[in-house]
Input
Amino acid sequence: MVRLTIDLIAKSRNHFKKKRGLSLPEYLKTLTHLHFSSKNIEDIGDLSLCRNLAVLYLYDNQIAHICNLGFAYNLTHLYMQNNDISQIHNLSNLQRLSKLYLGGNRIAVVEGLEQLSELKELHLENQRLAPGEKLLLDPRTLLSLAESLCVLNINNNNIDEIRDLAVLKEIQHFSAADNKLHNMEELEDVFSRWPQLLEMDLSGNPACKKPKYRDRLITVCKRLEVLDGREINELTRQFLISWKASKEAKKKQNNNHILTGPLIPYPLPDDFNMGQGPHPGHIYRQANMQRWQPQQSLRAQKLTISNSKSGLLNHAAVSSAIRSAVDA
Output
């Protein structure tokens, strides 16, 4: 197993030439850049003597765990793409880190970055995930990066929604090509919250085939200069914005006309006074309006008939009594 240690640095020809009579500890204190890419390194040993290290190149190795970097308070750039990393951890001390490259690893959940308040670039493209798995981003991590992150690359990670990314309001360059993004309404909502967005790549997503895909995104992204590798003409943008505003104004006007327009007389039949309800093709008549009474329910009709019969019986009884009194 190849391990990155002080001894390995001392044996490196590239670094040996730079010693110029300095002792190894003195030389290590002067180191700001360390290049150990493509060296079959599997582990990181104790590098604490490199206290001024600012840039560390460890890409294209076989590293499975991020470790032993707690000393690197001055580290600003960390290149660890194309390794075997499955978890992001042990980075909390790197509070000056501004660029982090972790593409081409085995990371399924992006987390553990809550302390990196100065992180400006995060590269997570092409994770080697299990079939059916997609890259997830912890909302806590996203919230902690909301004020600093300017560049995010999540290309080719089976991602099908980005609603949680809306908090990243400082994003200027966003790459999410070759994913499974399909919901145009969601994309418009998220991008409308990124006022600094200048360049974006969504090529290879299902959303790209939706009607007016490019026009809709150009309209909602006020400062976007490049979309899917193609520059945006400012005249085109202004035309699309004006067209959208005109369309929305016309729609609003039509809605107001429907709500506040004049009432249309409801048509009535000629036999309105015969108890029939209103029907299309006829006009109200005041006389008919006065004579018309709505049809009664069956229960009400029965009660009316019953009362009518009762009234007739009472009337007959009274008439019979009067005739009997007269005859007497």
